[in-house]
Structure prediction request, 202 residues.
Amino acid sequence: MPPNGSQDTYAQTPGTTCDPATLAHDQAIGAKIAAGFNGAGLTVSADLLTHFLRGVGTEVDFPAGSVIAQQALASAAFQAVNSQVQLAVLSQLQAGRTRVRLSAAQLPAVTFASSGGDLYWGFRGTQGLTVTGRIHRTNGRYVGTLSYVIRDSYGFPADDTLAGFGPPMRYLQTACGAPRHAGGAHWFPDTITVTAPFRRPA
Prediction:
């Protein structure tokens, strides 16, 4: 993802300096929060925060069928998007199209702001959606499967307070970001893949 104002998707903000004492203090806060997530059973949130703190910056992907993918599938946020996408697909199928393409406006971002648990603490707002699938017509119905790849960038924007630990994590990302600072934090892309059945009258 290119640099943007909401996620600060770059290593370190140009022109900033990293205070070693603040770096150590905020890293300790991050480790404590990650341990708290683990203790509360929020293992995905703990893993994502730990990956952020390590500063590697590599992508993290959660495949279809994983625990977090099942949680996403069951969430009201995903179900609302799934319903919207399925209606858009059905409209094109009923118009006689054999290859369906959806516009960007028909692929809304999934927002887990009110979902709670790992979906909230690990993802909240997401930054993109890709949908593929195969559907055939049988017995007066369109039947198949849609595969959703929910795309996210794990980072800490300026207004993300997150019960008080958002600002210190943002400092680690924007003032002490890796790779410029050894041991610094780094934003990273992540995805959740969700498969959903498609069964609609023709």
User: Anything to note?
Assistant: The two ends are 38 Å apart (CA to CA). The longest strand covers residues 141-154. The longest helix spans residues 20-39. Helices lie at 20-39, 43-54, 67-74, 76-94, 117-122, 166-174.
